[in-house]
Amino acid sequence: xxxxxxxxxxxxxxxxxxxxxxxxxxxxxxxxxxxxxxxxxxxxxxxxxxxxxxxxxxxxxxxxxxxxxxxxxxxxxxxxxxxxxxxxxxxxxxxxxxxxxxxxxxxxxxxxxxxxxxxxxxxxxxxxxxxxxxxxxxxxxxxxxxxxxxxxxxxxxxxxxxxxxxxxxxxxxxxxxxxxxxxxxxxxxxxxxxxxxxxxxxxxxxxxxxxxxxxxxxxxxxxxxxxxxxxxxxxxxxxxxxxxxxxxxxxxxxxxxxxxxxxxxxxxxxxxxxxxxxxxxxxxxxxxxxxxxxxxxxxxxxxxxxxxxxxxxxxxxxxxxxxxxxxxxxxxxxxxxxxxxxxxxxxxxxxxxxxxxxxxxxxxxxxxxxxxxxxxxxxxxxxxxxxxxxxxxxxxxxxxxxxxxxxxxxxxxxxxxxxxxxxxxxxxxxxxxxxxxxxxxxxxxxxxxxxxxxxxxxxxxxxxxxxxxxxxxxxxxxxxxxxxxxxxxxxxxxxxxxxxxxxxxxxxxxxxxxxxxxxxxxxxxxxxxxxxxxxxxxxxxxxxxxxx
Length: 548
Ligand code: HAS
Ligand code: CU
Prior knowledge:
This protein is 72% helix and 0% strand. It is an all-alpha fold. Helix 10 packs parallel to helix 13 (404-433). The relative contact order is 0.12.
């Protein structure tokens, strides 16, 4: 295969621009996170009448939406350029348009949050209402990301045309799947924002169908979490084997798992609405079953990772059931950070299964357990993998190298993250089981008798939050060094080869019509009837098409 070893310099600039914004978001969003844990400890008040919900929204939007989207799109531009060759000038131009739309959109959104006109949390669904500028800003971010998605599609299609009958390079294939997933699911959020929230916020309509808006949001919100997860899986499947000096267990298995994500990620949004009235339990049940289907590709991923590590360890002479563990390169931050991410995904995924089980969700829904869940999944598994990727990606793109000192700092950073997150997320899980609410300012429950039970955990959260903030400072030091100050030199963009004994990859994985077709059918099955129900049985007073 005509493998290009280095990302084109002009593509590198585009990728880096995205990554810079991602880390600026990390700095500001992390600060907001620290403030939140301090407020919830009950020992600290925000100055100048700043609302807890403003800080909470800043944190969620900057870390959940901005950090992730910018890092992912930057990483994917780099990965696609590395594996299918440099972008054409025209494509790269559109990539920059996408970047600027997203950046301007982010600035507009952040402005309205910070002036306190959009304290609607990162999920921004009704009945919370924000200034129209908030929705317009978000729309620009989404449109920008679509443009970047199309740039990848066009580039990949050109490669396929130039290489007829060949399987596309794995990392590029994966990036394309992720952007198809993103495109299909973000139609839902675009619909609720443009048809419902924006007209309502502009005062053109005086009410909207809240259940429809939440449903459209979660149609988007669940695949959103896999849009975050899949780039981490790209690193695990296609990069980590090379980092440790081994081979990929199977290319086909990796592609199959990505296709399964495409099929089953979207028709599952009801598992966020299990406690909501107005949705027939039958359809909740159908979507819970589909949720358990989408666990399968994660179990396949766990299997593939174990296989990769074990194959490598044994090739180095490891014996016994877990002897291979000792052969792994523990001192290499490019491996260590993502590996810790994998390890944390075991309890994180188990927590997800608890959430997805209707009866168990009754215990944890709307408690801070759920916040604990996504700080393990997103803020540990995904984020540590992104940090681990940044440690070679940024120097590769900036033409520098990671020194031993920086590598050591990155190992320390990972350990700090583990300690901080264990405190914070652990305490959140326990407090959640005792009923401590999420999305609630301390003052709203400070006088309730149960609060006494929760306070020790909330202090533990603040301790964890403070340690995590130190972790953020460390990663920012490393990233700034790698981007601007590290010694000049060549850093490898590692891409794994497939093990010799693996089967040849069949072309069927690239039958896009088939896969997108099945995905759409599953979406229609899971959503059509309940959606019609919601509109037909909209509460009295609804007008027009009963979306309002
Ligand atoms: Fe979730 C709520 C169910 C995964 C993120 N989730 C959330 C929210 C977020 C989120 C942000 O069903 C809150 C939304 C809000 O604001 O309200 N989640 C699941 C399920 C999974 C899952 C079934 N979630 C994720 C991932 C996320 C994420 C991934 C972000 C990246 N989640 C829910 C539900 C709710 C929910 C309900 C709503 C709850 C409520 O009441 O509101 C599954 O995808 C998890 C599958 C994962 C596994 C783990 C496989 C393990 C692997 C690691 C292998 C390790 C190795 C290392 C190889 C089954 C792949 C081994 C080495 C050794 C030495 C041992
Ligand atoms: Cu979900």
